[in-house]
Design goal:
Layout lengths: L3 E5 L6 H9 L18 E4 L6 E5 L10 H16 L2 E7 L6 H13 L3 E6 L6 H6 L10 E2 L8 H8 L19 E5 L6 H9 L17 E7 L2 E7 L18 H10 L2 E7 L6 H13 L2 E7 L6 H14 L7 E4 L8 H15 L5 H14 L11 E9 L4 E7 L6 H14 L8 E6 L2
Helix pairs in contact: 7-8, 11-12
The structure holds guanosine-5'-diphosphate (GDP) (2 copies).
């Protein structure tokens, strides 16, 4: 599980500035694909040796009890509940505000570990600035400047101190049981799909270990093959006497995607593609997971409605063009065998072994077709390629002046490798290595 750091504080203290600094993309993979909309409140943190998930809770107005601000406060409280560490930000230039005390009280009640960060302290006498914040009773205030990056590294290291370094990925040659996460926004039919796959209404599990953000793992056997289903819909009590007890948790969804080999993104054909669908899709892409898209509730749609949703998909999910789309009905158990054929295919592609000679030959052919464009008077020279990882497959290209390789050319190469090795269903990363 990725440790989750949640940024909390009143508006304007600098949360999103810190968030941006922590999540600055190291990989242009998802930089500007048409149709991609990212949720700028959740990101993969970088810097240091430990990856983490960072959540910007936006403006927390704990005293407002209606409307959109109340909804935001609810989301913030949910995020705090699911945090491994909370970074509580205050504004060192404005000094202690009454709202800070209210938030501090809430945080104390949550019993989550909290670090108190006094922001905007660049050029100030740190000890003096932070002194007044001792009164919040959340331990020693740490002075930082999100805008200038001062103290940020220490803050993150402290936040993650209790978490182990990630273990090096064990070699997976694709022979292990695939982990398949079923993800999507609420009410698209995830639970119905899980139940359809299991062939029965699932027995409700009592006393599931862990917190609300933990997904449930289920063994599934289909046609003699085993899968571990990661069910983000969670423990759900159905029927008259039961009601939905689980809230939609973005953190849970992201954690499940991180853990999975393949994600099944479930979308509701009767509702169309929403921003939240696109956000979940963007996480899958960012995490590099193999993907199959299930357009659910296909039953009962008229011809013109089907045309409409297909146009929606073309328009809003173009950036998923590497994945297979299936039109299914979880309720009527339609389209499930085909869906799993694509899951198998996507897993295989994600785990594909690509040899250096083969990769290099494909690279050479690609260069003959199209040379890398000249950049600043110099043409990048690409010499050979080797595989740098799986799930997603990473192709590392060695050469000279590789900094000058344009994004469009990188995308061209991605397409060439994808086609040559039939990598349908998985993101593919092409990276460059200078001078080796
Ligand atoms: P949020 O509402 O908590 O997400 O706050 P923002 O990140 O949007 O920042 C609010 C304002 O504070 C912006 O004008 C930022 O440029 C400014 N700001 C953020 N961090 C710093 C900092 O470290 N020093 C200074 N001087 N200003 C900062
Ligand atoms: P979840 O929140 O994503 O787990 O969604 P549920 O599985 O609880 O489904 C939400 C609603 O959509 C329920 O009323 C389901 O009966 C309904 N539903 C799920 N799959 C289908 C489907 O394939 N067709 C139709 N018509 N309804 C469906």
């Amino acid at each position: 599980m990725l440790p989750t750091i949640v940024l909390v504080g009143r508006p304007n203290v600098g949360k999103s500035t810190l968030f941006n600094r922590l999540t600055k993309s190291r990989d242009a993979l998802v930089a500007d694909l048409p149709g991609l909309t990212r949720d700028r409140h959740y990101g993969r943190g970088i810097g240091g040796d430990k990856p983490f998930l960072v959540v910007d809770t936006g403006g927390f107005e704990p005293l407002v009890d209606s409307g959109i601000l109340k909804e935001m406060a609810k989301q913030t409280l949910l995020a705090i509940d699911e945090a491994d560490v909370v970074i509580f930000m205050v504004d060192g230039r404005n000094g202690l505000a009454p709202q800070d005390k209210v938030i501090a009280d809430r945080l104390r009640k949550s019993q989550r570990p909290v670090l108190l960060a006094v922001n905007k302290t660049e050029g100030m006498q740190r000890a003096i600035v932070s002194a007044e914040f001792h009164e919040l009773g959340l331990g020693d205030p740490l002075s930082i400047s999100s805008a200038h990056g001062e103290g940020v590294r220490d803050l993150v290291e402290l936040a993650l101190a209790d978490f182990p370094e990630p273990e090096p990925e064990e070699e997976n040659d694709g022979s292990r049981t695939p982990k398949v996460a079923i993800v999507g926004r609420p009410n698209v039919g995830k639970s119905t799909l899980v139940n359809a796959l299991l062939g029965q209404e699932r027995v409700i599990a009592f006393d599931q270990p862990g917190t609300t953000r933990d997904s449930i793992h289920i063994d599934l056997e289909r046609n003699g093959k085993h899968y571990t289903i990661i069910d983000t819909a969670g423990v759900r009590k159905r029927g008259k006497v039961f009601e939905a007890i689980e809230k939609f948790s973005v953190i849970k969804t992201i954690q499940a995607i991180e853990e999975a080999n393949v994600a099944i993104l479930v979308v509701d054909a009767q509702e169309g593609i929403t921003e939240q669908d696109a956000h979940v899709a963007a996480y899958i892409l960012e995490a590099g997971r193999a993907l199959v898209v299930a357009i659910n509730k296909w039953d009962g749609l008229k011809e013109d409605e089907r045309d409409w949703i297909k146009r929606e998909i073309d328009r809003k999910l173009q950036f998923l063009d590497f994945a297979k789309f299936h039109y299914i009905s979880a309720l009527r158990k339609k389209g499930l065998p085909e869906l799993f054929t694509s899951v198998d295919g996507a897993y295989k592609a994600a785990m594909a072994k690509l040899s250096t000679p083969q990769l290099t030959r494909v690279l050479e052919d690609a260069i003959i077709q199209h040379q890398p464009p000249i950049s600043k008077g110099i043409r990048p020279k690409l010499r050979y390629a080797h595989q740098g990882g799986s799930n997603p497959p990473i192709v590392v290209i060695h050469g000279n002046h590789v900094d000058g390789v344009k994004d469009s050319y990188k995308r061209y190469l991605e397409g060439v490798f994808r086609k040559a090795f039939q990598l349908t269903g998985t993101p593919l990363r092409v990276q460059f290595n200078q001078g080796a």
